[in-house]
Amino acid sequence: MSASNETIEQVTRKGYEYGFVTDIEQEYAPPGLNEDIVRFISAKKEEPEWMLEWRLEAYRGWLEMEHPDWQKVRFPPVDFQAISYYAAPKAKPKSLDEVDPKLLETYEKLGIPMHEREALLGVERPEEEKPEVAVDAVFDSVSVGTTYQAKLKEQGIIFCSMSEAVRDHPELVKKYLGTVVPRKDNFFAALNSAVFSDGSFVYIPKGVKCPMELSTYFRINANHTGQFERTLIIAEEGASVSYLEGCTAPMRDENQLHAAVVELIALDDADIKYSTVQNWYPGDENGVGGIYNFVTKRGLCAGKRSKIAWTQVETGSAITWKYPSCVLKGDDSVGEFYSVAVTRNRQQADTGTKMIHMGKNTKSTIVAKGISAGEADQTYRGLVRVNPTASGARNYSQCDSMLIGDKCGAHTFPYIDIQHPSAQLEHEATTSKISDEQMFYCQQRGIGTEEAVSLIVNGFCKDVFKTLPMEFAVEAQKLLEVTLEDSVG
Amino acid sequence: MALLEIRNLHATVEGEEILKGINLSLNTGEVHAIMGPNGSGKSTLAKVIAGDPGYEVTGGEVLLDGKDILEMEPEERAREGMFLGFQYPVEIPGVSNTYFLKAAANAIRKHRGEPEVDAAQFLKHVRERMELVQMDESLLKRPVNAGFSGGEKKRNEIFQMAVLEPRLAILDETDSGLDIDALRTVSHGVNALRSDDRGFLLITHYQRLLNYIVPDTVHVMVDGRIVKSGGKELAEELEASGYAMFEEGTAA
Lengths: 489, 252
Ligand SMILES: Nc1ncnc2c1ncn2[C@@H]1O[C@H](COP(=O)(O)OP(=O)(O)OP(=O)(O)O)[C@@H](O)[C@H]1O
Ligand SMILES: [Mg+2]
Fold this sequence. Notes:
Chain A is of the alpha/beta class. Helices cover 22% and strands 34% of the residues of chain A.
């Protein structure tokens, strides 16, 4: 066995750092799914009648849909009647100060700041101090707190949990919910629309540049549950926002379902940057346990010159199955997708993007980097469609796979559907390995094998990491290091 | 005690013996040159000394400062002060030269029980070394060797050596591919680093390099053996007569 292969053998044996369980009193919906459960969830959230009706309609649609089977991932059928669709800590705090300390501790352990930093007016900030980041923390089915709400509100920015938005901003929710991802868009979107629990709601008013990063941290804690969050971000004319989501879950032998829907809407000249660092529990080395991450994410560039950029770093989950997409409706709008997906052990991922060009002179960029180790299997699946209305459309796609060891797989399926002769498309794809020469070169300079692998893989992902906000790029790099640790023979 | 002591070293690659009993002793402060026809095993020797796992050592010893290094991982040897300037430097896409060098410097420092480099100080050191070998600043930020021209890669090897300040530097055909001016600056860089506690092993095909970096000893390697050693005039002889006489000698 070559040196780099040995190295990689060990890569695949690293433990998961966020696998602890928070011991807290929770209440659950009884397992199973029917109209009563949908009513139960809606009642728990004290929702208005229209919201309940919206859910029920989705539920009825779901009943008539079939579980899709075109994806290149394999898993036993999910028993939708065995899952509990609602789990929440019993205590209901009214403000951050009242939140159960155990919950705050949980987020602290995960490295997520749940305290608003005091503003140091007129005081120069030391360089190492982190900039402000507003956080919405979602624990199983509910949001346990959102920071910096008041400060953001001064500029008219709404950043709150979805439940709060339904209650306090029904006109916005009614206007936009389900407009980008319709209720019956697909099997899991319909399921989510029926039973969605919390998630984040963001509204940036006209001309406002959001002064800080907004982020949501999703934590699955309870067992036999799924997490079905819903996120909606609206950027009005000329507004801009950078948003990040992070995810972790305890180590459990069962597979848990995470079926989220994210909708982004950018009006004229608006700019939304959505970054994900996904580190759900991936299951153990034999493929037992782990999260099924089946997510529908779509952004609508509704306005002229609007821009939506997705960046995802996917290191966790037993199965990842998602295609963050951009619908480029406004003329001169821009869609971007940057992805790093790491699979090891028995992890599977079928991920990519869809770029739908509708407006004139629309532009899209796709950069996808897949890293497979152990016996993992990974697929990039991407669609670029240029509609008959989309004159002057341009796309650049680059899909690179890196294989670590010789038991893993990587596949690329680029679909292209061009209905306008002026479209310009460029596609590049590569598959590479960490060569023995690269390993020896690093080692000869004193760099150990483990660090060498992480260095080379980080280099491979550079084009994607540089699109992440600064701190998160550092996080992502660390995450990759941890994921690829213990790889030395 | 010699800085590098090689005794009766044998090595094979894929079952074929390439090094057939090498003996060589290099003291601190010395510069040795190895010359020899294509395929005679010069690069193999360099890589075996540095610990390339692609080669199997089947006999003999290699001592660095009296310590047997054959059981050490390549990174340990590097941390002990060994540097190999590669004949064919490899590209590492996406990893900037500075970042790479910092990782290397820190690994070496850690081995010595020293704290990590101070970012500002390291940058200053890097700039000084850049000037020494007149490397273009833009190459610093670029990924290691990616898209570098042949000559730029070679210069980058010397630059890395200058930054890492090894005790023993083995330079495998670092002069090949350099233009005349580059050869001069690179040689100047090597000469500037020559010191009483450092040694150099230069592998080269050209006597010209040895006009700039004057060696204490020249070895001729043919078919996996050192067939002759001598002073710098040996290189001049070779330039005039080639290797034919040695090859006959070994065939006999
Ligand atoms: N990895 C390898 N696999 C097979 N053969 C090898 C390998 N490495 C070296 N060899 C062989 O060993 C012999 C010596 O090669 P080496 O690269 O050491 O020669 P060299 O003296 O450096 O030559 P040059 O002057 O051309 O650089 C050659 O015949 C070469 O083909
Ligand atoms: Mg050679």
